[in-house]
Amino acid sequence: MKKLIPIATLALGVIVFAAVAFTQQSNQSTATTLQVANTEPAATESKPEPVQEDKMVYISLETTKGTMFLALNETKAPISTANFLAYLDEGFYDNTIFHRVMKDFMIQGGGFEEGLKKKTTKDEIKNEWKNGLTNTRGTIAMARLGNQPDSATSQFFINLANNGFLDQPRDGAGYAVFGQIVKGLDVLDAIGSAPTSPQGMHGDVPVDTIFIKAATRVSEEQAAELASAEG
């Protein structure tokens, strides 16, 4: 047994030496791999596409109940917005009335003068009801005839409540929203709570006439303030 001890010791030493050599070789290999990996160019991070904001046109409706400020969405509703602004710019809406007020539903105007005298309008426009805008509280939409989707001219309505059913094609199409109130919901509610009565062929006419005294575009400075308040 004494003769076997040196041999065993020698064998053990060989094994230890081999293990150390293998570990060193592995470490060198790992270091080389890391060096190679570190020399590769860093991947370029893809930047998300900037979100394009809708182009808005800001207008004011000065009424006998106060002033409402609205943002009209020229991006999503270009036809309706251009049509409304064409009437506005020529003073068509000045001194017209809200001839139809339905509590908890909507207020409608843009087509009649005092005494329910109907104004002459431009041609009818295409219905943009599929533009992604919906009939929620405070939104403005084009009024039209039933079962005639493309019959809108100058008249509009403003929603007093969320009226999602107006977004559905009950008669072939919904009702096209083209903007919303950004300031003056209290004025909307004041008009919407006005007492009404039938007058001639018209129902839900305010007992005390509610005028649109003036409809105008607002200045760039005021538009910026309204846009900031909206955001």
| Shape estimate | globular
**Oligomer category:** single chain
Mean pLDDT: 85
What is the level 1 CATH name? Mainly Beta
The helix-and-strand class reads alpha+beta
Number of strands: 11
As laid out across the biggest beta sheet, the strand order is 1-2-8-6-7-4-3-11
CATH-derived architecture = Beta Barrel
Main pleated-sheet profile:
8 strands, antiparallel, barrel
| CATH overall fold name | Cyclophilin
Helix content estimate: 25-40%
H and E order: HEEHEEEEEEHEEEH
Uncertain runs are 1-39
User: In what range is the share of β-strand residues?
Assistant: 25-35%
Relevant CATH superfamily: Cyclophilin-like
Number of domains: 1
Radius of gyration: 36 Å
Q: Give the terminus-to-terminus CA distance.
A: 92 Å
H/I helix tally: 4
Notes on the structure:
The protein is of the alpha+beta class. Helix content is 29%, strand content 28%. It has an 8-stranded antiparallel β-barrel. The chain has a two-stranded antiparallel sheet with strand order 9-10. The N terminus is likely disordered.
What is this entry, summarized?
The chain is α+β, with helices and mostly antiparallel strands. It has 4 helices and 11 strands; from the N terminus they run H-E-E-H-E-E-E-E-E-E-H-E-E-E-H.
Topology of this protein?
Elements (H helix, E strand, L loop, with lengths): L3 H36 L16 E8 L2 E8 L4 H12 L6 E7 L3 E8 L3 E2 L20 E4 L13 E4 L17 E7 L1 H8 L3 E4 L2 E5 L4 E7 L2 H11 L1
